[in-house]
Amino acid sequence: MNTTATPRPSVIQLAIKEKAALYAAYIPLFTEGGVFIPTNRDYKLGDDVYVLLSLPDDTQRYPVAGKVAWVTPPRAAANRTRGVGVRFPADEKSKLLKIKIEEILGSHLSSERPTQTI
């Protein structure tokens, strides 16, 4: 029995119901796109995370096998929400999801409103 097996990625369901919430969670800085996920679980950079993402006005759930690309710790400065930034993988499904998110956000992408991410 191999005791050094890598742990299975955790599964997180993220249902974003409003465009403003999607704007706050989306991470356009990542080339492949990504989302911020509020969570109290401890993650490390590079951890594999399997996200089931629901978007506003869309009944479909989008599975994303992403990686933790940053961590907002508890009691972070400026009262930031604790959680993780998950980078989408560089694959065709993620490319289409990024396009879909950016279509939903439209002109909001160039907004100066604060987000959960930067």
TrEMBL record:
Annotated GO MF terms: cyclic-di-GMP binding
Pfam families noted in UniProt: PilZ (PF07238)
Lineage: Bacteria, Pseudomonadati, Pseudomonadota, Betaproteobacteria, Burkholderiales
Domain PilZ residue range list: 11-93
Classification via Gene3D superfamilies: predicted glycosyltransferase like domains (2.40.10.220)
Protein name: Pilus assembly protein PilZ
